[in-house]
From TrEMBL, chains A, B:
Organism: Rubrivivax benzoatilyticus
InterPro entries: CbiX-like (IPR002762), Sirohydro_Cobaltochel/CbiX (IPR050963)
Gene3D superfamilies for this protein: 3.40.50.1400
CDD domains hit by this protein: CbiX_SirB_N
Swiss-Prot/TrEMBL keywords: Lyase, Metal-binding
Pfam annotation, one family: CbiX
Keyword Lyase belongs to the record: yes
Record flagged with keyword Metal-binding: yes
Domain of life where this protein originates: Bacteria
Record's protein name: Cobalamin biosynthesis protein CbiX
């Protein structure tokens, strides 16, 4: 079994916007060296989700987890992503694509946001 | 000096979308009991940033930190928030409003997102 991970972010016109997500991808790669990790975007930036999924399937991944790097699974995540994953599944019947919860719902991310906000208050 | 904190999130039509942000607010309140903490939204949900700022200033806060609960300071955060804070400063000359970096740029949040994404891969 060959595993892949797509970190799926919104995207923005300013390329610097992607820097924290590139840092997330780098940290995941360091923690999971056997996994093919790709950063993909809903709009404005490349690759999009379909291209990243095609790439990982072509590279031989049989399992691809899709993790929305969103705070809250808002409108476009809930509406758009399932359809994108369904299209990927149809194009690549040998690969299982699974949609994970948005990272903003993870307890460690909630705790980290609270810690960062408390830090903004100083001592 | 009386301090306040506004956690500023995007907002969504679905009220459940705010739950992780309410959890962040609860954790910050527990960590900083002397600080007045409010959750405010850019759209769809109440209070908005202006109302939350008015409320904290009326409650006597002399320092209010505004923390964008955004991953990356995207378009509306960079374009809209400074103007909103400027308007608040003009309405409340006795209160200093300071815009903090978006939480998505904080190292602990980046690390937490990477940990949550790696966890999605299982063992």
């Amino acid at each position: 079994m060959s595993r892949g991970l797509i970190l799926f972010a919104h995207g923005a016109r300013d390329p610097r916007w992607a820097e924290p997500f590139e840092a997330v991808a780098a940290q995941v790669r360091a923690a999971r060296p056997g996994v093919a990790v790709r950063l993909a975007f809903l709009e404005f930036m490349a690759p999009d989700l379909a291209s990243a999924g095609d790439e990982l399937a072509a590279a031989g991944c049989t399992e691809v987890a899709v993790v929305p790097l969103f705070l809250g699974a808002g409108g476009h995540v809930r509406r758009d992503v399932p359809g994108l994953l369904q299209a990927l599944a149809e194009r690549h019947p040998g690969t299982r694509f699974t949609l994970q919860p948005a990272v903003g719902e993870a307890p460690e991310v909630v705790a980290a946001m609270a810690a960062a906000a408390a830090r903004a208050l100083g001592t």
